[in-house]
Amino acid sequence: MNNNRRLPDSTVEVFPIGLGAMPLSLANRPNESQALDVINTFIDGGGNFIDTANVYCADEKDVGHNERLIAKALSKPDNVQDIIVASKGGLRRSKSDWKVDASPEWLRASCEKSLQDLNSDSIFLYQLHAPDPDILLTESIGELAKLKSEGKIQHIGLSNVSVEHIELALSVAHIMSVQNRCNLFERQSFNNGVIEFCENNNITFIAHSPVGGHYQHAQRSENILLKKLAEKYEVSAYQIMIAWLLHKSSSIFPIPGASKTISIKDSIQAVKVELNKEDMQILEATIN
Ligand SMILES: NC(=O)c1ccc[n+]([C@@H]2O[C@H](COP(=O)([O-])OP(=O)(O)OC[C@H]3O[C@@H](n4cnc5c(N)ncnc54)[C@H](OP(=O)(O)O)[C@@H]3O)[C@@H](O)[C@H]2O)c1
User: Fold this and answer.
1) Of 216, 200, 219, the residue nearest 208 (C-alpha)
2) Segments making up each domain of the chain, as ranges
3) CATH domain 5-217+238-274 topology
4) Which of 188, 227, 237, 260 suits 73 as a labelling partner, its CA being 20 to 30 A distant?
């Protein structure tokens, strides 16, 4: 069975579940060998889309850590197939937090550093990490459009946006994807029309934090209904959460994070889970 999905306006087909690489580079991250195993396990399982960002790192001196790891994994001779890497720019990292800076200058400097760290001439998908309240969105997107015309990036994506942001961005450039926080417990992008807009405008909706997020996933996976369904389908509660997103819309592309190989091995199996209509309804009515 080929469940792969075509990315809009491209010839690229992706496995329906991507890898969110962030947990490989934050505090309490795994050692390099374990991190490379996670990426390789994902690829060996058929995955071919990895989400990253320059600011997935420990602090300002460590910027690019996640991208360098991915470049190292992809330099392995066995990883011959084309792997899609999606990065982001528009934040600044310090030890304690991330601050938005989507100025044209910072976006350009970040993109050029990402190209070096990824050891690549061109980034397939480059996403604006978040709109900057101090910079016109059209200016940020205008700079990304310039980077695209120079061949440094191939497609533009947005992240952490509303329908109004997407409409404004579309007035400047073609947008391939929108990446917002979205999981069974956090459905803002369903309620505010973002997912419907993406469906109607041939934009891939990338669901970040699809199993509850970096800090909440353990607690979310303990939900009683999820555990009951996990038992019924003989899969993990995590797979039920990912399968729910896949069943909601063919425009939704979940990117579960992992710092352990066992987690990503399990998550990619969600592609095989066929939730029936009744269970979809029960999940939505009970968890909201
Ligand atoms: N655009 C943005 O602003 C933004 C914000 C947040 C995240 N993201 C992106 O979205 C990706 C996913 O979000 P996230 O990593 O924050 O949250 P998440 O995917 O909801 O949760 C990730 C954590 O869940 C655990 N997990 C996942 N699948 C599992 C499974 N099958 N079994 C057991 N544990 C499992 C992993 O634990 P272990 O670590 O123990 O393996 C992992 O660290 C990130 O990696 C990043 O690429 C983007």
Assistant:
1) 216
2) 5-217+238-274
3) TIM Barrel (3.20.20)
4) 237
In ligand 1, the atom with minimum distance to the C-alpha of 239 is 31
H-only helix segments in 188-260: 188-191, 194-200, 217-220, 224-233, 237-248
What's the CA-to-centroid distance between 142 and ligand 1, angstroms? Answer: 30
Whole-model pTM: value is 0.97
CB 37 within 8 A of CB 72: no
Choose which residue among 17, 19, 22 to substitute to test ligand 1 binding: the one with the highest number of ligand atoms within 8 A of its C-beta: 22
For 66, how many CA atoms within 13 A lie in the half-sphere containing its CB? 27
Between the CA of 262 and the centroid of ligand 1 the distance, in Å, is 13
